Amino acid sequence: SPSSADAVLDGLDPEQREVATALHGPVCVLAGAGTGKTRAITHRIAYGVRAGILQPASVLAVTFTSRAAGEMRGRLRQLGADGVQARTFHSAALRQLQYFWPRAVGGELPRLVERKVQLVAEAGARCRIRLDRTELRDVTGEIEWAKVTQTVPEDYPACVAKAGRDAPRDPAEISRIYAAYEQLKRDRGVIDFEDVLLLTVGILQDRPDIAERIRGQYQHFVVDEYQDVSPLQQRLLELWLGDRDSLCVVGDASQTIYSFTGASPDHLLGFRTAHPNATVVKLVRDYRSTPQVVNLANGLLAQARGRAAEHRLELVSQRDPGPEPHFTEFPDEPAEAEGTARRIRELIDAGVSPGEIAILYRINAQSEVYEQALADQGVPYQLRGAERFFDRPEVREAGVALKGAARAGGNDPLLDDVEDLPSQVRAVLGTTGWTAEPPAGSGAVRERWESLAALVRLAEDFARGRPEATLADLVTELGERANVQHAPAVDGVTLASLHSAKGLEWDAVFLVGLTEGMMPLTHAKTDEQIEEERRLLYVGVTRARKHLTLSWALSRAPGGRAGRRPSRFLDGLRPGSGASHRGGPGGQGGVERGGGSRRRKRGPVLCRVCGRTLTDAGEMKLMRCEGCPSDLDEALYERLRDWRMQEAKELGQPAY
Ligand code: ATP
Ligand code: MG
After folding, report:
1. Positions of the region Disordered (predicted)?
2. Which residues contact 371 (CB under 8 A, 6 or more apart)?
3. Label partner for 124 (CA 20 to 30 A): which of 419, 508, 587, 642?
């Protein structure tokens, strides 16, 4: 009814309401971090559904990560708009591909390639070109770029020249490796991440009958984080739309952080030109952060250069004043980690929940010292704050084991003399290698243990509420919770990379390791790459609601040469670094100085990705196995993982 639809508009400001009620025709929202873009589009869908204007099944909302998609679905459910598809481009495309593949191509959809970098190495070998680790990573990145820009191997050298790209090797060589890579995939019957979009685009272009079916199903499109749309995703969006224009996009050019994968804010910034009848709305009220945090974010943006920066929007905080951002310099990295952990301990003691705190870094390899330091302070933490609990491989595996045991009922010898439920769960998890005591060390092994411990706690709570409950009841309960992503509270401090923090927010954020070399990362060389690094820092700063700490260490190890300097992006922003920006943080004192660290005996070094104990000196330095994906590929890897999980979940579902 109209009145119940109107209730959805409560809690939106006038501009957000304009977005929410503009249900016809193209809409574009250009706005900075924390201004409620995601909130506005979520309420827009809910409003349309509740007002009876949008059919839930006819709406496709596209988000950047499957976590964001899950959050949006949950929010829509709360707002009384069930049944709307909220997905990533990849997961939406994959569903459609699975559905239409047998008809369009015949047979089953090929599997996704497991180790892409390895395949690129083999392709190099076929061309008699040896690639070292760095080249391998860079060439893989080039192939990805070529594919998302729909460049075929033959055209690659010309396109590189035209785009003014700095190719990591002779473009003619890369072109040959790219062609060999494509051939290898065909030989093995596998497809890669980019193929999912390419194949969907190809089928929609070549098969009008199939395109019509899809267009018949989806009438309205909403895209979040549109500044990071790749040309290929844009093409897919256009094919979905056909000649219709019910499209609503939101984005912030200042948060473009994936242009290294071919994404570009041009589609966002050129939206009005492409759609002259578009409703364009700007939001400037920042609901997320205090004036102090917003001030720093504005200061950072004021220094930004390039196309995205021309469209920056100064943010205006709507919140009460809070503490000034802290700038802290440490003599070495372990000291930085210790100081950070101590400060986090203080915040928790002062009543801040651990789940409301995050430590964000540039690359994953930076997390290890922080894990150690948090463990020393007895602070719970989670490395994969961004990954949904029920999608974690160990939780899936545990689910399968529990289901098996529940099916065996009383006949499972393992559970013979165990009634109460938590002990049964512990026994079943024991078969997957879980122990009641946490394992020594940190990293992936510890993380897996924490997930399963959370599952045991969930079973304990469940049994407390329903003392007569059986294992089968618990399995049913888990299934229901997984459906609505009602994860057990893993109330820990989040450790995450800046890339994976996109769209999220916490009360307290610690941006660590802000030295030259890390921020910007050494591999950023061109002006454009440097600007992207600056935007990444902007994304980090704007994740904080209230407490924000920026820190760096002058040397890596205790007693080392203090040769590092703080990130150039903090020049003019950190107290005592020359001309302070307009209304800068100034105020309270200067840069704080943390003490040095005690040297400590270290435990075994574990692979950051798979958790294996490392013995090889080279691998120990990398802190991961040679074969495991590199941290620098983090952003891509994360997207791949997101997609793989979605894939696993959706395999076998006939609907699209
Ligand atoms: P980002 O660019 O980081 O993705 P965003 O523009 O999508 O940010 P949201 O995440 O939608 O911003 O909103 C930021 C925070 O502000 C959220 O906690 C949201 O609930 C809150 N918020 C947004 N709009 C309002 C409003 N009108 N009144 C109160 N709170 C609001
Ligand atoms: Mg958002």
Report:
1. 557-601
2. 381, 383, 442, 443, 446, 495
3. 642
